[in-house]
Design goal:
The protein is α+β, with helices and mostly antiparallel strands. The chain has 10 helices and 49 strands. The strands form 14 sheets. It has a 6-stranded mixed sheet. Helix 1 packs antiparallel against helix 3 and helix 4 packs antiparallel against helix 5. The radius of gyration is 31 Å and the shape is globular. The protein starts with a helix and ends with a strand.
Amino acid sequence: MSKTLRTVAVIAGAVALVAATGGAALGAFAPGLAGTATLGATGISAATLTTVATVASVASTLASIGAQLTAKKPPARGTINQVIIAAEPPSPYIIGRTYSGGVLRHDVGYGATLKKVKNPYRGMVLVYSVAGPLLGLEACYMDYAAIPFSGGAATGYYSGFLYRDVRNGLASETALTPHFAGMPNWTSAHKLSSKAAILWNGKFDKDGKRFASGWPTSGAVWEGVMTYDARKDSTYPGGSGAHRITDEATWEYSQCPGQHALAYVLGRIRNGKKVFGVGLPPDGIIVQDFVTLSNICDANGWKVGGVLYEPGDRWANLKRILEAGAAEPMWRGGKLGLRFNAPRLSLYTLTANDLADEDVDATAQQTWAARLNGIRPKYRSEANKWEYVQSDLVSIASYVTEDGEEKIEEQQYDLIQQKDQAAQIAAYKLLNGRELAPIVVPCKPHMRHFGPGDMLTLDLPDHGLGGIDAIILKRQIDPARMVVTFTFMSESAGKHDFALGRTGTAPPTPALTTGEDRDDIATEIVRGADGFSVAPSSWVRAISCTYAGTPKTGQFPLSTTYYVYQGSEDISEDALTTYSLATTNCVAALGGTNGRVLTIDAMSADRASAQVTISHDGTVVSVASVNLTKVRDGGSVNSATDSTLSVNSSGSYGAVNGGPLTLNVGPEGSIQVDVTLNYGASAGTGALAGKIQYRTTPGSGSWTDMAAEESDPYGATVGEPSSLTLSASIAGPSSAADWEFQLLTRRSSGTGTLVALDGAMTVGWN
């Protein structure tokens, strides 16, 4: 079902795009239809196209929601303990610390007869991981018992009968060397660069009775591949250190799910070729999401460990890694980001004034099947010979009572090797299954600044959504009507403490608000503990700013006065009632009688907050939050597109390959240029590089590079095309002007003849 709905969403989205742009988008999907053919010749009116765009946009939104909510978890495919033997075996990839049986690449018996034993020596070459180097080998095992070694020779029981030679997978390795010389079909030319491997060398001696029952189950515990940590990259905002996202030589070993997920998305490159992973460019990834996940995992003590295999389903592999951090992949604005489970701050209160229409679809609860009340997690246990074992049942008694029966499911976590971590991830799944979803809310254009992952407070009492926090799962923009449709899932307070084991009571199942709740919301009164009430309990404000983020006149100062009641008695100015303030990214102070007037004069970042803690006689009765977010001017965006790109197959730059495009830009704002050029090879092989240039006087003057040259790391061969993607941005001029933009390409490697297939260059200003 999920795959079908996803396909419907893609098709419907394409129809909406073509209809809404009067057919201009056809050039991007079918270059053969662009140019001389026009939709005007078909007799289809503009009104009809608008209607088609609207209907298709709605279909795309609903199908995408269905695809997300019915998406299946990755199939259980855990680490394989036994040796993998196959003619075309998969490539293994070790992450974190784990045990693996390895992949057999060479196995032979050889040697002169020894004590009546023919071919007494056995040589076995096993690869344990690609994309090396690994941090190192921890221990070798036979029948899951660690074998002591002194250098390359086993000691103890196997002394004199077992030897090993190990490679950690450096970029340039020497061949593994057998202890017993003469191993057939294995020479110094048999190198396994970038692959972690062991050559096991054994001797069968009839008198000694070693290996009399055959070769035992063998394996090894490794500390795996290196990862990139943006927090240790001084070129990343807030980072400090030598890590660089495009230089794997600077990466380090880690067991953090956030770091391994980012490394897998980036892909592992060796000699210019991707050997494992997805292979997205850094500009196609929301790196900050992975940094946030890394911080969450470090704080919770969550680790990831195991072996992934390719070829295979890379999307499922990514989900396996993220599963260890209670996260999921999520596309936002054409870039890959994450949805994770962690406490967060509401950025805005969405009210009826923000709605584009009254067609809000609030689901009272998720499906019966999704609302589990128990999960029995399976995790990989080192104490149980690294097999997947069932852990204790994770169950919520209040949910069982609510459902009237047990609804239990077994869940295997392929890359989790800690019992408590598996229980915590399972608890999150139970809690998320009780949230209200989907909640579909159509909003006005100014809400487009929020996107998937942001948490808003829904103050829509007429729809039963009285002051609940909710996280955006999906954002869909209808360009024909300028309607921004959000799909939300509610976010219950307290579930994070329960899932992580800090409290013993699960939060109640959320529900649509009642009439009494709506009355409280309408009066901005929140019932406090022991009869205390505070108004306003919290408030959220969008600060209108220029393109540069400067608040407009009249936005500051902001001020509010707090009222505190004990029953019906106003104790706001009682000597026992006190107010204290904590701020983030804003200039604020308390003043007035008894210090109960909050004034905010400025904010220093795109998002800011202030928290007023109200106490009576030393006991906290309420914490009132103020959340501010900048909303920058958008308006209509000037843009221009060239979908007739060409390729320069020479090794040096020559004639223009895209544009020139002239666009009116400024005042201020930003200029963004994006290029996607799909290309192939009519002969030989080669890779394409390119750069974007601009000049401030169309038709004359010199060109300036917007950014450094970028090269496609993969290249194209006959029958196997590739793609060059470029993206650059600069600040707009202080006053409006016509600027000119162009694309230049060249062949950066290889000697083949490269040809353009399709693509587009788009220049935009906002």
